[in-house]
Amino acid sequence: MTMNILRFEDEKFLEQLFHSIDKLKGTWRPGEPPLIRGWLPYVGMALKLQKNPLGFIKSLQKQHGDTFTVLLGGKYITFILDPFQYHLLLKSHKHLSFRQFGSKIVEKAFGIKSLASNADLDDELHTCYQLLQGKSLDILLESMMQNLRQVLEHKLSKTTSWDMAQMLTFCSSIMFEVTFITLYGKVIADDRKDYISKLRDDFIKLDDKFPYLMSNIPIELLGDVKTVQKRLIKCLTSENLAKLQGWSEIVQMRQNILEKYLVREDFEIGAHHLAFLWASVANTIPVMFWALYYLLRHPKAMAAVRDEIDHLRQSTGQKKGSGFSIYFTREQMDSLVYLESTILEVFRLCSLSSTVRTVQEDLALNSETGDYCVRKGDLVAIFPAVLHKDPEVFEAPEEFRYDRFTEDGKKKTTFFKGEKKLKFYLMPFGFGASKCPGRFFAVTEIKQLLIVLLTCFDLEIVDNKPIALNYSRLLFGIQYPDSDVLFRYKIKS
Ligand code: HEM
């Protein structure tokens, strides 16, 4: 009997049967959240999750409430879905480790071996993250703007005729190159374009296999992924990075720390750079895609965003037609409320980021709305995508509304569930100790790129087919579309 010929009643019956067995065997103990482990040993419910993670978790929420434990690929994960209980992860942070879970992921995905055993190295690398904020961020953004100009140069030189492109390919090509040279410096060799496109193609190949890299399938069984991973790491060793010109402050500082701890381990240094490079572009690419896609599909949104950019340009004395010389500071970009709201709406619709911690010892999580026990070695996760689509918080949650995060022409930061004000209502960047340190960089980079594209180009969508999320990232980050979309662009006359 296969899973798809099991009827709903059969599944319910099996679930009850398993629950009774679990009770007898002690797999489920009183005080623990409901346990859902399906009838496939080890795999548990992983196949159902893979098909549609959000739909699957929501269906379990309907049956079992806001907290339950699911067996997924050999791991028991307790999901906490009530946003008023998210803080339990912070409250119990001493017993819930990010490092243990994180170091396993980076080992598999990027070949990093040194983090699990070297907490000092990890701590020192974390000190670099201050260079993604404040004055250092302003310096990065100035360099990013110049790099954007360089990357788009050849597109700008083709004056009046329309050019056709696939939107995701277009966004990933620009985003990858601009981010790479802003952080790691310029390629000075004659084959600059060739070097970047090979790096990007390998990066995309590795990223494509990300869900499999997260699973327990040995990397050797994933086709040529191991070879691609090695090739990328090699490109990013100290020896090869030395050939690039103009490293950012953060890359320089990371390099100094890595050299201090990893003497004569250049391949391991390259693996650390690969992880950082992945973190810096893997999510901004799909956000850029979805933002452009939604703006092109919603003319009212496009008009509102273009209008506020035009106003800012005029009020800062930048003439119409000044094209690429347009420049806004971070504060000025922050005043573009519809642009920001569009990006936040993309996060709400497309982010499936979860925050996962490993339980260090048997633990009781106590809150006003319920107490439950979790076991040493299991995982605890919050999955805010459920909150992002909660109709009690966001009206018509499936709709794209560009002004959802604005109120009376200003930013809206107050959201309620029932009568209660939410402390957390939008969480694409994770939570607590592992919250994304690149969040300011990411949002400003996306704003900069959108401002330039909307100001310098006429853009039109060609394909009118509906697209959806492809869920290949499972519970990690921003989801890609299930297909690319044809569009055309030309320089504004
Ligand atoms: C829209 C874009 C982005 C999204 C949605 C995003 C999301 C996230 C999330 C959810 C985490 C936490 C993972 C966890 O808790 O397990 C994270 C971590 C991280 N992100 Fe981002 N990120 C983005 C852009 C960036 C950028 C541009 C950079 C660097 C320039 C960056 C650097 C990092 C790093 C280094 C970590 C690991 C932090 C640690 O070691 O504790 N991210 N990101």
Walk me through the structure.
It is found in: Endoplasmic reticulum membrane; Microsome membrane. By secondary structure, the protein is of the alpha+beta class. It has a domain at 2-114 and 354-384: Uridine Diphospho-n-acetylenolpyruvylglucosamine Reductase, domain 2 (2-Layer Sandwich). It is 49% helix and 13% strand. The structure holds protoporphyrin IX containing FE. The site of protoporphyrin IX containing FE has 20 residues, from α14, α15 and α20.
Distance between the termini: 64 Å
Q: What can be said about the biggest beta sheet?
A: 6 strands, mixed
Task: Pick out the low-confidence regions.
Answer: 1-5
Mean pLDDT: 90
Helix vs. strand class: alpha+beta
CATH class of the domain at 2-114 and 354-384: Alpha Beta
- Named at the architecture level, the CATH assignment of the domain at 2-114 and 354-384 is 2-Layer Sandwich
Net shape: globular
With helices defined by DSSP (H or I, 4 residues minimum), what is the helix count? 20
Q: What topology, given as strand order, has the largest sheet?
A: 1-2-3-11-8-4
In the CATH hierarchy, the third-tier topology of the domain at 2-114 and 354-384 is known as: Uridine Diphospho-n-acetylenolpyruvylglucosamine Reductase, domain 2
Strand content: 5-15%
Give the C-alpha Rg. 24 Å
Helix content: 40-55%
Counting DSSP E segments of at least 2 residues, the number of strands comes to 17
Family: Belongs to the cytochrome P450 family.
Main location: endoplasmic reticulum
Protein name: 25-hydroxycholesterol 7-alpha-hydroxylase
Cofactor: heme
